[in-house]
Design brief:
Layout lengths: L22 E5 L5 E5 L2 E6 L2 E11 L2 E8 L7 E3 L6 E4 L9 E9 L4 E9 L6 E2 L1 E4 L4
Parallel strand pairs: 6-11
Antiparallel strand pairs: 1-2, 2-3, 2-11, 3-9, 3-10, 4-5, 6-8, 7-8, 8-9
């Protein structure tokens, strides 16, 4: 959709715009589903520990390796009908300021689990796409 405002502006005219964005599902050609809100792609963070690697002789200039804290669950599924709640956190870094609360189906536990997805740039290890859940 495109909006065009065609007028002569006078003095201190103010134009207020509100952009309504909904969470949308993005289907990859492989069949997996990812979630986006506006320009942000959301991901499930994977808990990890950081291991210091090679040091290059300067403070804070070294390699860091991220190792999953536990085996990674690759059995998450997402229903296209899943409901989302967008949570905004004030006074946070840009990539940590919004989270999506939703439920993913965990095949290992054979049940839905409430999770928080965060913008992809706010994670180190992450899962971005999910297998579609079987239709009811």
């Amino acid at each position: 959709p495109v909006a065009v405002v065609n007028r002569r502006w006078k003095g201190k005219t103010t134009l207020d715009l509100t952009f309504v964005r909904e969470v949308r599902t993005l289907e990859h050609p492989s069949g997996t589903i990812a979630l986006a809100h506006g320009p942000l792609l959301y991901a499930l963070p994977i808990a990890h520990t950081e291991i210091e690697g090679t040091s290059y002789g300067q403070p804070s200039f070294n390699d860091v390796y991220a190792k999953p804290a536990e085996p990674v669950n690759k059995d998450w599924q997402l229903s296209k009908e899943t409901l989302f709640e967008l949570i905004a956190f004030e006074d946070s870094a840009p990539f940590e300021s919004r989270a999506l609360k939703c439920k993913l189906y965990d095949q290992r536990q054979d049940r839905e689990v409430a999770v928080s997805l965060v913008p992809m740039g706010g994670t180190v290890l992450r899962q971005v796409s999910f297998e579609p859940a079987a239709s009811n």
